[in-house]
Amino acid sequence: KQWYQRRVRGLQSPAYSELLGFITALNNSAKGKSYKCSYEISDRMKSIATLFTFIKEDLEEIPLEKDQRFGNKAFRVLGERIVEKSHGWISNVLPDDIKEAVVELKAYFDESFGSYIRVDYGTGHEINFLAFCCCLYKIGFFSPSDYIATVFYLFREYLILMRKIQMWYRLEPAGSHGVWGLDDYQFLPFIFGSAQFLGNPVISPDHFVVPEVVDKHCDDYMFLECIKFINDVKTGPFSEHSNQLWGISGVPTWTKVNGGLIKMYKAEVLAKHPVIQHFVFGSLLSFDPK
Questions:
Q1: Residue by residue, what is the 3-state secondary structure of 226-277?
Q2: What is the DSSP string of 9-37?
Q3: Residue with more model confidence, 181 or 241
Q4: How many helices (H) and strands (E) does the chain have?
Q5: Which one of 88, 108, 158, 251 has the lowest number of neighbouring Cβ atoms within 10 Å?
């Protein structure tokens, strides 16, 4: 009963509304645009991306534990380093007048890369990175003019890092075999990626299951970039190893795909207790109305 009451209150919280509004804003910024479109990457945006460089450097210094096929426990060492160093990393890029936000920003950042105890990763961790970005807007570090760069640059860099971490440590999908992630781990890139195809006269939803189309256009579109990764790491018929995505390929238009994925995200991620049970609330993303 307690978790149900918390779930209901969570869906009525300011944090829920703000995160959903943030997803909508990012989604709108990506509509009808490929990676090749013209957009500005601010110095502040680049400074946040440097945090990923620090994590990559630590990753490459930490030796993997031997004889571990899945969920290499060396990931726990990486997690310890992230938790230990992130306060300084984040504080160094924040202007003095908003440095006090580092405590809440750190909480979301630390949870963005997986569970260092269970050695897994899923949409519950992905949403923490979304919250981290949302809070950077709330404190005025980013402005609405940064929306498109948040999707095409910062979020893409995050995905690249997460794929490296997933493969390097062989992270298990969080939840029930990745049931809340369209590709076992992620969900949001499929929302933003489908938005890119709105109004596209050439590529329709049934094309993303055609390997030749994916290989040709994966450097231009987030959705196809995700499919390319799946094709590279999984074997067997696409309809079997990625059944939910296979079903999406039968939807007639990208408008319906995009709208359907947002509804699905609300129902299968934001409203699922196993996904959001560890999400923390604070002054920036609050649980109770003010």
A1: HHHHHHHHCCCCHHHHCHHHHHHCCCCCHHHHHHHHHHHHHHHHHCCHHHHC
A2: HHHTSHHHHHHHHHHHHHHHHHTT--TTS
A3: 241
A4: 15, 2
A5: 88
